[in-house]
Amino acid sequence: MNSGLSLADHITLALRADIIGGRLLPGIALVENDLVSAYNASRNTIREALHRLGQEGLTRYVRNKGVMVRDSQSDRMLEALEATELAREREDWRAVGTHSLAFHQHIVGLLRSPLFDEFFTNVVAQLRLVFCTAPDESRFQAPWLARDRQIHEWLAEGDQRAAEDAMSLYLDDSEHLLLQMLTRSSHH
Q1: Among residues 38, 73, 102, 174, which one has the fewest Cβ atoms lying within 10 Å of its Cβ?
Q2: Are 98 and 180 within one domain?
């Protein structure tokens, strides 16, 4: 595998994309035999992929039924996005910030990236404080929301790389913005 991903990784990504994209709905059973033939993989490989989805909270084990798709993370992400947009219409900027951060925590959870996790924990609290001091919060928040939607779409289409690249860029930009605002506020 030249991409450095094992077959189990590929299957995990594919199944995760199907769950996020709503092609595998909550309550659907993921049957080992079906997956073995669908992905032309060994039972162990399928088990490993299912185990990972379970760790990510995307599936759960139900007695006598096997592995089922959970109420999906994707729904929570969409709810957070919609809540963000509603808050923006009400011009409730504190709520916009809160829902936006919730959305990103779901994404970070899905990307399973320790780097993003660490970055996020460090930056979220600071962003929160900066949101409150932004001189024009509507201008500050609007472009981010469009990017949130785009990242969600890429995840739903299973384009992990595009989502990760967008997220990296997003984090870089928010860091620059943060620094700009912090230097500006310290000059007063």
Answers
A1: 38
A2: yes
Report CA dihedral (15, 19, 23, 25) to the nearest 10 degrees.
120
Q: What is the pTM of this model?
A: 0.53
Domain membership of residue 28 as a residue range:
7-69
- Residue 179 predicted with pLDDT over 60: yes
Rounded (10°) angle between helices 43-55 and 7-20: 50
- DSSP string across 97-115: HHHHHHHHHHHHHHHT-HH
State the total domains in the chain: 2
Q: Which of 56, 108, 50 is nearest to 77 (CA)?
A: 108
Q: How far from the centroid of its chain's Cα atoms is residue 153's Cα?
A: 10
Residues in CB range of 183: below 8 A, 6 or more apart: none
